Structure formats: C-alpha cells, structure tokens
Amino acid sequence: MAHTTVTTTAFTDQKPGTSGLRKKVTVFQQANYLENFVQATFNAIGDCVGKSLVIGGDGRFYNQTAIQIILKMAAANGFSQVWVGQNGILSTPAASCVIRKYQAFGGIILSASHNPAGQDGDFGIKFNTSNGGPAPESITEAIFENSLTIKDYKISNDADIALDEIGSKELSGMTIDIIDSVSDYADLMETIFDFNQIQDLLAKDSFSMRFDAMHAVTGPYAKEILENRLGAEKGTVINGIPLPDFAKGHPDPNLTYAEELVAEMFSDHAPVFGAASDGDGDRNMILGANFFVTPSDSLAILAANADLVPAYKDGLSGIARSMPTSQAADRVAEKLGIEAHETPTGWKFFGNLLDADRATLCGEESFGTGSNHIREKDGLWAVLFWLNILAARSQSVADIVSQHWQTFGRNFYTRHDYEAIPNAEAEQVMQHLEDQLPTLTGKTFNGRTVSYADNFSYHDPIDNSVSSQQGIRIGFDGGDRIVYRLSGTGTEGATLRVYIESYEDDKAKLLDDTQQTLADLIELADSLAKIVDFTGRTTPTVIT
Ligand code: G16
C-alpha cells in the first residue's frame, strides 16, 4: 500500500474539551490541522495495525472532506477495517451503537454538536473507545500530549472513495464498509421500547406529536422510527432533511433556539407532545402542550417510570447525573433504593459506571439523557422513552410531571449562560469565586446558610482516577445550590454557566414560576461572582 509520510509542525491548541476538539471550520481547514489531530489520536492509541474503526459525522460542512482524509490516514496507519455511515452520516448515538454492534476497536465522530455549521460555523472531532463511549481523560490527555510533539503523519496516496453507495470497498489494503446510517440504530430501539404500545398511542385521534430535527442529523432517524416504523402521521417530523449548514440555524434543542417547535407547542393549537434533537442527535428537549420539561426533571421522571419500559422493567442498577444537573434524580434513586452518582460534566464520565453496571440511566442538565444501551447520550431514545411512558400512563406530559412533583417535591432549576465573554474576564469571575471558597461555609445570605463551598473533584469509583477543578459549588442548608463553571464546548471566547437550584415540597408552591421562585438565589449568584463588575453583562445570553 502506497502512502506518504508528511512532515508537519505541531499546533498548541488541540486540547480536547468537554467532548473532543471543537473549533471553527476555518481553523480545521488550515494545512495539516485535522491531519495532526488524527495522527495524534492514532499515536495515542498505539499500534493501529489490524484494528477497526467506525467513522461518521453529523453531516455538517467539511464532514465528507474530513472523512476522506481520515480514511486515507487510517489505511496508512495500518487499520484493516472501517465502517462508514452512508454519505459519511452517523448520528452520535448511532455511531456508539455501531461501534458496539460490530465490536470495533473505536470510532471517530465528526461533530460540533449543537454549534452552528457551515463555512463560517464550527467543526469537531472526537475519538470513542470500544465500549462506544467518548474516550476517557487518560486518552484525551495522551492525544493532546502527542499533538504538541507531532512531527509527521502518514496518509495513503489513493484516490477518494465514493461514500454514497452501501457496500464493501478497499483503500490501500483497508476494507471500508459503507453502511446504512439508520437501520442498526432503529433496530436497537425496537429491542428497548414497546413499539406496539407506542403505535397504538400514535394512532389515537386524541394524540398528536411534533418532532423538530432542526435540519440536522436526526431527520432520517426520526422519519424511519416515528413515521415509518411507528406509524406517526407524515409531517410529524419537521425540518427533517439534514443540511450542511443546518439551514443556518442553531440546532440546540432548548427554548431559545428551537423557535419553530416552541412557538407551536406554546400556541392554542399545540400538539399533545413535542420534542427536538440537536446537530448530532444526542440531545433532546421534551415538551407537552404549553409545557416544558427541564432535562433534570426528565431524567428523574424517566427513572421513576422505567418499569414501564420493557428493557428496564426488571429495575435499574443506579442513576448517574452530572454535578450541575439538579438533584431531582437523587430523590428517585433514594426511593428506589439504588445508587446515585454525581460525575463531572461530560458524557465520558458515565462510561465506567455503565460498563460496571453501577448505573443504568444517566443524564445531564445540558439536554442529555441516555442509558446502558449505548455509551453516548441519545436524543431519540429519550423521545421514545417519553412516548412509551405516555402510552402506558395515558396522561398528558404536564400531568405526569406535576404528579412527579407531588410525590418527590420539585427541584426548581435554571441555568444562566453568558456566552462569548473574553477569556480573561471569565477567568476573573472564576478566580474571584475560588478566592472566596475558604471563607464561605457558615456564612448566611438572605436567610440561607452556606453548608459547603468547593471546586468539585470527582473520584471515579471504578478506575480510581481523580478529576479536579470541575466547577465551583456553593451549597446551602436544605439543599439549595449555586454552581459555576466555564463551558468546555464553545469556540468563541468563554461561556460562563451559572446553575441555580432550590428544592420545594410545599404542595401549594409546586407550580410556581421558576425564575420568580429562584429570583433571590439568582441575584445572590450574580453578586457573589460579581458578574456585572467583571464582564459588564447585565443579562444572560441564554436562560434554560
Ligand atoms: C457535550 C458533552 C456533555 C456536556 C455538554 C455541555 O455535549 O457531551 O456531557 O454536558 O457538552 O458541556 P459544556 O457545559 O462544557 O459546554 P454535546 O451535546 O455538546 O456533545
């Protein structure tokens, strides 16, 4: 097999963030930028000879160009087999599913998730291991180390491979199987949920549903599963054709960016159930008619109703949530008598718990929920889980949520994001908070006494690794919390995230407005961090 070894110079900015390397497309288009990162990944893996990979992405601009480069580099580095989604498309959960199904050594997923796409948008790349999940920190650190010292990379001299036809091909001695992007994933969903029961629900005149694929990768998956296999009315899936620029949208399924769906769900002709997914299909937003379910509540409600779903009817081993996610799920775990885990932000931290069967369901406030069926969060899986619950309980989304609050109490919760602030200003905010940590415990603010103040460290119970500096937590007597951290997924300046939570079990107050209920904690969060002073920002960019 003919390949070339190309001399290159290291870049210093290839440290993977919360979920792989995310940068502007124009950064990836620099000579050798992508190649360096891919070679650094292969170097971190060690001997690639004879190993196998899954490759696919969310279809955004630069996806196919990157895949051609990665295929040639994989061949030159000795990989023997690669599975690629047709036209280079695989949603992140589908990639995880395929890695596990074909027992691949790992996978390379090309996505910048919910970040805007197109020539001026973002691109991203991450490596997943053989369990189908994002590489743990030990591997991402090794990739970064390699990226700093890289001197050359290997690439095949062969021509590009056509990615549009399903079937087997060969590139420099490496077998490439172009696979249907949708079918393996859709088949897996059928083994988890009660498709007959969901079919009956979707056939009812009294039921209606809208799913917004936001012009991103989930469209073909949602159409196949919801409309073709489950019989939902044609047109249930909107914005279902994936476009390289996501129609210039921002495919982040939240109340701000999923505008079209939100307008319909909060109108007088709202469908009974609404949902959206993000750029690469791993996030989800759940809505009822005129009703929004927070991701934290969604995790708790899925857990409390898991016995209604065939795959989980025999019980859950545990529930894991990321640290900033509300503590609602912990209350369910306590009632079920199962383990509750608190991990740092980043799906990679759930992998060990899932592999060791210490958790069955996982979730994050950032619109991510998933289970042990794969090792990524999974947007459509969450939608099907909700449909399965709605079918089994014959109640509205709002009724299911309020009954949950009646039983467990409500963790009022909000996240305030300050996007694209200059890095230095964001660091000042975090440093100012860090400086206060030793003196906060025992102090009282507006009648709330601080019971702990720290920068979260996670001790992984399976491999004993320690991840520190994972976000500043200020906890109050009674369970109220303020959490601050800087996002690890942005590509422009820094994004400061402030997470605010307060528990309420007074039944008369359960339906109160979130922002009003949390108003004094929000004010305290702003003043403790001196957000206005350091950043000049008086209001958040996004509130979820
Ligand atoms: C990624 C990670 C998630 C994380 C989210 C937000 O999601 O996989 O675990 O919660 O980013 O991270 P941050 O708060 O650091 O921006 P995705 O959907 O962007 O791949």
From TrEMBL:
It catalyses: alpha-D-glucose 1-phosphate = alpha-D-glucose 6-phosphate. Residues 14-151, 184-287, 296-408 form the Alpha-D-phosphohexomutase alpha/beta/alpha domain. It is an enzyme of class 5 (isomerase). Its EC number is 5.4.2.2. One of its GO terms (molecular function) is magnesium ion binding. SUPFAM superfamilies: Phosphoglucomutase, C-terminal domain, Phosphoglucomutase, first 3 domains. Pfam families: PGM1_C_vert_fung, PGM_PMM_I, PGM_PMM_II, PGM_PMM_III. InterPro entries: A-D-PHexomutase_a/b/a-I, A-D-PHexomutase_a/b/a-I/II/III, A-D-PHexomutase_a/b/a-II, A-D-PHexomutase_a/b/a-III, A-D-PHexomutase_C_sf, A-D-PHexomutase_CS, Alpha-D-phosphohexomutase_SF, PGM. GO terms for biological process: glucose metabolic process. It comes from the Bacteria. Its cofactor is Mg(2+). The keyword Methyltransferase does not apply. One of its GO terms (cellular component) is cytosol. Keywords: Carbohydrate metabolism, Glucose metabolism, Isomerase, Magnesium, Metal-binding, Phosphoprotein. NCBIfam families: PRK07564.1-1. Belongs to the phosphohexose mutase family. This is phosphoglucomutase (alpha-D-glucose-1,6-bisphosphate-dependent). The lineage of its organism: Bacteria, Pseudomonadati, Pseudomonadota, Gammaproteobacteria, Thiotrichales.
